[in-house]
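pasting for ref
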Amino acid sequence: MSEFKALPLRRENIDSDIETFLDENTLQLRSANTNERNVKRIIIGRPGMDDAMLDLYLNNDGTTSITHALGKNKELSLELASFLKNTVDPDGFESVKYVIKGITSDDIQPVFDSVPDIKDHEDKSELNIVVNQDNDVRKIVNISSVKHQDTITVSHFKTSNKLMIQGKPLFSYRNFIYLISHLLDLAGLELVLSRTEEEQASIVRKEIAEDYLKLQLPDSFDNLPKITQSFLVSGCCVKLASPKLPEYSMLLFPDFRSLEGILKEILSEHGMHPSQEERGFGTFFYVERGKGVLRRDFRSWIECENMISALENAYAFFNKYRNSMFHMEEFAEATTKVDTLDKAVAISKDCYQLINELYKVKVE
């Protein structure tokens, strides 16, 4: 049983992973209930066979232990347990610990401040941040998931401008990396996205990535802010290197951070400031039948209908993918799992198209 203990499963994907197993084996979910001891019991089956049962122990450190020797159909229970274990990133069994250079207090403090802004669909903060130490030399914080309990420790060394991240690469890690990704140069970005040691990094040259992006962003690349250009190029270098990963959503962080920044930039030019609003973008937009809609009170603030349309399309895309990559929806199939590099590249291209349209309309 020890092989199924303390697994670094992506908890937000467990339901969708079980759904995949059921579909592949023509099975049905009988029940999935979590008790007061934080044990989730799964019962599956189909007509003509005994039901299979297993328990998922949602441990306080963010890991998950599986007990499968339950019920009458132990063979099927073992198959599901093995399937879930195989969804684990092999590197996820090991805690990460690395240092990113060149991060100042002015860089990292806004990131720390924005940690509580990661919210679920009920507008509740998904991450807690606790300051353990803060003096002239260093600041140490613990960032933990409210729902999944996994924790990372982030230490900022103020005199040497170094940032150290320690912990398992689970929910808290992925969200924190999203928040800091806009600060990183190419080497730092490759390091946190693929969790590869610097000497093992394999990335595409900047010139190749720039040429690729100019083809994808023909009306906008040269007009983008230099920091956004650099950010997109860095992320593209990693993707074009075709890394082999168990899951690829983190490779999309630079694209979504860029789109988020451009949305905020254009909205602020029209007097709308999502960062200053408790509901963020939700103050100005809502989604109806999958389409983004600028709220009526703000439509008159933007005179150009083409810009309103471009903003609505960009918001709908950002809201759909950003939320579904980090939050478990009520229905498992609503969660986005980027399990192939081709899918990541396709989503990136859609993101590029929206960025291009925003800037094309902006400079008209």
